[in-house]
Amino acid sequence: MSDTLIPTRLPRPFDPDRGREARALFPDLDGDLAALIEGTAGCSPYLAGLMAREADWLPGALSAPLAALAAERDRLSGIAPDQIAPELRRGKRRMALLVALADLAGAWPLETVTESLSAFADHCVALAMRAALTAEIRRAKLPGMQEDDLETGCGLVALAMGKMGAGELNYSSDIDLIVLYDEGRYGGDAVLEARPALIRATRRMTATLNDITDEGYVFRTDLRLRPDPGVTPVCMGMAAAERYYERLGRTWERAAYIKARPAAGDIAAGARFLEDLRPFVWRRHLDFAAIQDAHDVRLAIRRNKGFFGPIQLAGHDMKLGRGGIREIEFFAQFHQIVAGGRDPSLRLPGTVPALGQLAERGWIPQDTANVLARHYRSHREVEHRVQMINDAQTHQLPGGAEGLSRLAAFMGRDAEELGREIKDRLEEVHGVTEAFFAPDTPGEKAPGTPGAIPAAGADGHRKDGTRTVGQDPAGAAAGQAEVEIAIDEALVARWRAYPALSSERARQIFDRLRPQLLHSLSRAARPDEALVAFDGFLRGLPAGVQLFSMFQANPQLIDLLGDITGTAPDLALYLSRNSAVFDAVIGGGFFTEWPGEDALCKELSRVLQIEEDYERKLDAARRWVKEWHFRIGVHHLRGLVAPKEAGHEYAELASVVLRVLWPVVQTEFATRHGPPPGRGAAVMGMGSMGAGRLNARSDLDLIVIYDAAGQETSQGRRPLASRTYYARLTQALVTALSAPMAEGRLYEVDMRLRPSGSQGPVATSWQSFRDYQETQAWTWEHLALTRARVIAGPEALSNDIMTFRRDLIARGRASGPVLRDVAEMRSRIAAAKGTRTIWDVKTGPGRNQEIELMAQAGGLIAGDPDGWIGEGLNLAVKSGWMRTAESDALLSTYRLLWNIGQVGKLLSGKALDPDEIGEGGRALLLRDTGAETIEALQAQVAASTEAAAAAIDAILEREADT
């Protein structure tokens, strides 16, 4: 920005005589600058007085105002501590005059005005603190501290809060400070001696800034934002402050710390304190309970100030009144409080930047951000003019016509037009913010906003072309009637005894939600089943305020919960114990297309980078995976993805976890035992994981292969032999994936497919893996390799492993020996598994495990290592040992059973039983299989598996006869 004051607008002198008197003080000024002086002095007695006192300094400052302010800060820095108080007041006069003129002239935007005011306040606080501490050091009241320690405030730090912290000070603002000291700067009993001196220094600093003398004052200083100000001293230890926030901190204090920053003193210690306070300010989950807290604060302000009824312009408070500045700040801050724990990009102190980022991240519509930002700037401009008139700490518009005329002249506007504009802005801000904090009636979010769920039409189909599973398409009226008929009053009556409804606040919110909840449940195909499932969900909730607040702010979630409880009671039970996964629905993009493995890797990496502690990284990974796992399940439930696509997404999610977590595990392990010896280790996925097709409850079949490259031991604080190193590293990976932690577990891990099975070492050396596969492996182990892939590990080793696998399988096999081994394996599996039900999709004659074996045999015999079931069966036909009709029978059966299996695993961890999954579950099962009735589906399963078993029998009998 050019440092030249070029007016783009000019005030008109409300008092022409005073304006002319001021203009006469500056005979060398002409044109717009002279008019600026005349108009300003003719509207503001305060600024006219400053012009008279600084008549010699002002003309030079107007030629380069930014440089003039910098020079004034430099001048003050050279003042002796015992002379600083009057000189700070002189500096404040000059700064106030110059900033006002640049603002009134339109030469500086709002951001430059408020940043200049805030930067000067920082400098004044720093100089006042330095002077106060100097006196204590010279009296030897700060043990161990010398004058060199003044650069870091002798452990004392002033945190700038509110508008000062955000760099948004208004023209006649007080400054909100929290003053703390770092106990660590004083060892042992020294802190007890230093404490009273630091308290004295804080009081002296405040007096230097705050006291009114013949020279005026610097800044009105408020220290009451500190913890429990009625009983605590004006400065307190950081450890004590942190304990307070951990135990007693309130929502408004969390909001206040959004704008906090170290402004003077021990800046580094202040930054560490704020970092330690981050978990208090930024909750890990979406915090919709804060919205009610914010609304309560708004109502308290209205009650205290009497701000009720329609907006009246005369005397309206531009800061605290309806539609005022505080409403916009609250709107931005509490959106940040809700979501900032999950999205660090929202942690911005400035109001306008925060609104912009909230829109960028999809939390508010862009139009809303634009409107509020525009009105915020306009409100602040009006506020500044009101304050400039008499340097009054006021935010109230004038109460009479004369006062409004003066304000209009100050702004170079017509009074009537200005009044209409201000009122229109206030009413629009009030409308937007009131709809957020206290909506009159619940309603769905606009499409495209975070959490917007595709709505269903009268026929049960959503606008995205999908159909709501288990919903009654008859409409709201019929649904309401069902509530009245089907509701179990005894069941509902016991809800208040559940932990989720133990608090009065939870009960109040739930009572408001109850009609919509029951209506949503009534739309299930079997409302009584849905109600029982919802009872299980509610009974499992450890607490309710946060979740119920989320429902209240996002009523579309109630319909989603109705879908889940009406269709998948087991998923509803999971939700009761992991309700934070609803965060993902609100977070934006929940119903968009699958982003792909690489994009998810980047996202998970960003999530883990935020956490410094290893266990926190693991918990963060668990939370993240739960949300994406939930997303896949909901997409499947609502028909947004088919069972096959869901299987692919579950597998990609697991791959992402291994790719991102494996380096994290290695880094943590290396802190004790050094980096991996040799070329490192690769993680290979086997079975369904290797094939890239999982279900909602799959465990992970893994093999770890390492290459120590001749290095016998690791190089670390506690070195290990290479074999031991990789065995323990593998166990660390298994623990990271499967250990139950605060956020649950990621995956169960099965490593029995490694060479020699459970009898072999948990990690296999590269040389041993090759030797074993070449000379000792059974046919089934080579069959398993057709579905193996390296998922994580060093690129060179990973490429070597996959090349070896490809070359090993590419040799091809004679069909006879392979199929005879397959027949033997089939017999052993049948003997071990015993009799299963018709709905067992995995094991048994003609089931998927047998079909997978035939497909794997197709790839092994043909020497083609890649491909899924269809490709393997096609290779078998091309090799001549399977007929086309047999291949078709196996493939169609596999697809049918796969779809059934995916539904079964989504709905329950138990074996599928259509009689146990309710009407909603049966509707989902029929939708995904295309069957008309459960009876028809059962007949189809029986016929298909019988045909598949017969085809496999025929194939193996032919080969046995050759």
From TrEMBL:
Gene3D superfamilies: Beta Polymerase, domain 2, Nucleotidyltransferases domain 2. One of its GO terms (biological process) is regulation of glutamine family amino acid metabolic process. Keywords: ATP-binding, Magnesium, Multifunctional enzyme, Nucleotide-binding, Nucleotidyltransferase, Transferase. Residues 303-437 form the PII-uridylyltransferase/Glutamine-synthetase adenylyltransferase domain. Residues 42-275, 561-798 form the Glutamate-ammonia ligase adenylyltransferase repeated domain. Pfam families: GlnD_UR_UTase (PF08335), GlnE (PF03710). CDD domains: NT_GlnE_GlnD_like. GO terms for molecular function: [glutamate-ammonia-ligase] adenylyltransferase activity; [glutamine synthetase]-adenylyl-L-tyrosine phosphorylase activity; ATP binding. GO terms for cellular component: cytosol. It comes from the Bacteria. This is Bifunctional [glutamine synthetase] adenylyltransferase/[glutamine synthetase]-adenylyl-L-tyrosine phosphorylase.
